[in-house]
Amino acid sequence: MTRRLLLSYLTLAALVLVCLEIPLGYVYSGAERDRATNAAHQEAESVADFAALSLAYGRPDELATQVTACATRIGGQIFVVGPRGALLYSSHGLTAREREGLAELPEVVDALRGGAGADVRTTSVGGVSWLSVAVPVRHDGELQGAVRLAVPTDAVANDVHQVWLGLALGGLGVLVGVAVVALVLTRWIGRPILELERAARTLAGGSLATPASVTKGPPEVRRLAATFNRTAALLEHLLASQSAFAGEASHQLKTPLAALRLRLDNLEIDVPPHLRPNLTAAMTETDRLARMVEGLLALARMEETALTPEPVDLEAVARERLTAWHGLYEQQGVRLLLAGETVGPALAVPGAVEQILDNLLSNALRVSFIHGSVTVILRPTSTGAELSVVDQGPGMTAEQRRRAFDRFWRAADAPKGGTGLGLSLVQRLTLAGGGEALLLPAQGGGLQAVIRFQGVPAAPSRRSPGFPGRPSRPSSRRPAIGAGTGGR
């Protein structure tokens, strides 16, 4: 921001200087040329008057002296010609050719024709620019000849160049002054904004150890900093309250739920057979409430901290979770398969892939039919890796897939036991790692949950760990029974 403000101030100052100095330079240059022209005209008129008197009264020596003296004083050349253009007097020697060409000069021709005023011309001879003025010589109304005066314009050009140089140096000095003032001003404005940016970055990281300064910078920035500090304090208070609630709820809710579940288990032997369904329903709802508490606490822990994605071996995690779930799937008569290709490490928050797979496998098992199958597919993508869990259940409509990631939302025909938090947790864990969670219809029916992870930037020569020797066809293994949380 400091650079942009400084550039804006300098650009504005440069535009003002250009608009002022260029017209001023042209005006001064024109004035200098007019002054030189007027001075040459006056000198030529003075010599013409003296020549008229000298020629009329027969004083040629005085005219020659006057012509030479005047030419020396002005640093130019003066020539006096007769009525027919013949050279009468000259301050400088001329060759025969120059004598003959003198009468053919345009300004001399105009003066010999009896021009009322001077004819001013600028010519270049031998690389030197000359200002030529020719005026007629009259006495008692009779044309007696003409006077041609020529002065070099180097002095005028030097004066004009000095003016332009002075204007340029003055403009540069003004720009330097503006740059110094603008730098001080932009730092005065930008420093509190940078402090505010650092405070916002700190707040985004989960804390605000040092509040933004409210005593520096313009009033608007100070008011903004004060408002930001109040907002940050309120957010910290809310986060602290949420953190305290999550910690307290973890102890206050889990303990009575565990005790309630234990009491229901102890009642099972004393309950008559015709009341057993009610007891089973109560135990099921107790388990569902426990899973819901676990899901809410997991969401609360996610939202109160800023998690940093780390490289994760998707294949290793997928094999480990399939090993944990295989026994439970086998008990339910559902096949659990792993298919796809070798993928490299992906970015995910710590523990996210395990929770994502647990929730998706739990949902898939709940909707799967006996002798059906659930397939976990891994495949590389242009930006990372993709993990899919495909079931053969009833699937979802487009509207249901759109709302499935909402908290506590459950489809009307969803199997019992779900909490409506599993997919919400999946989505938030995926987004925390910079990925994307999608629900798509599976081929042949069912639902395909697609989780896309960002890849880990690495040198082209490095390879991520994989499954050496894994068969390309779907495979299953026989591990121990595991448990998952959440539900569809």
Specify the structural class: alpha+beta
Form type: rod-shaped
Unreliable residue runs: 461-487
Q: What amount of the residues lies in strands?
A: 15-25%
DSSP, total strands: 12
Number of helices: 11
Mean pLDDT: 78
Distance between the termini: 49 Å
Biggest beta-sheet profile: 7 strands, mixed
Q: Helical content, roughly?
A: 40-55%
What is the gyration radius calculated from CA atoms? 50 Å
Q: Please trace the helix and strand order, writing H or E for each element.
A: HHEEHHEEEHHHEHEEHEEHHEE
List the helices and strands and how they pair.
Layout: H1 2-57, H2 60-74, E1 77-81, E2 87-90, H3 96-102, H4 106-112, E3 119-125, E4 128-139, E5 142-152, H5 154-204, H6 219-267, H7 276-304, E6 310-312, H8 314-331, E7 335-340, E8 346-348, H9 352-367, E9 373-380, E10 384-390, H10 398-403, H11 422-432, E11 436-441, E12 447-455
Parallel strand pairs: 7-9
Antiparallel strand pairs: 1-2, 1-5, 3-4, 4-5, 6-8, 8-12, 9-10, 10-12, 11-12
What does this structure look like?
With 488 residues, the protein is an alpha+beta fold. Helices cover 54% and strands 17% of the residues. It is built from 11 helices and 12 strands. The chain has helices spanning 2-57, 60-74, 96-102, 106-112, 154-204, 219-267, 276-304, 314-331, 352-367, 398-403, 422-432; strands spanning 77-81, 87-90, 119-125, 128-139, 142-152, 310-312, 335-340, 346-348, 373-380, 384-390, 436-441, 447-455. Strands 6, 7, 8, 9, 10, 11 and 12 form a 7-stranded mixed sheet that branches. A 5-stranded antiparallel sheet has the order 2-1-5-4-3, with helices on both faces. A hairpin with a 5-residue loop joins strand 11 (436-441) and strand 12. Helix 1 (2-57) packs antiparallel against helix 2, helix 5 (154-204) runs parallel beside helix 6 (219-267) and helix 7 (276-304) runs parallel beside helix 11 (422-432). The longest helix is centred in the first third of the chain and has 56 residues, at 2-57. It is rod-shaped. The two termini are 49 Å apart.
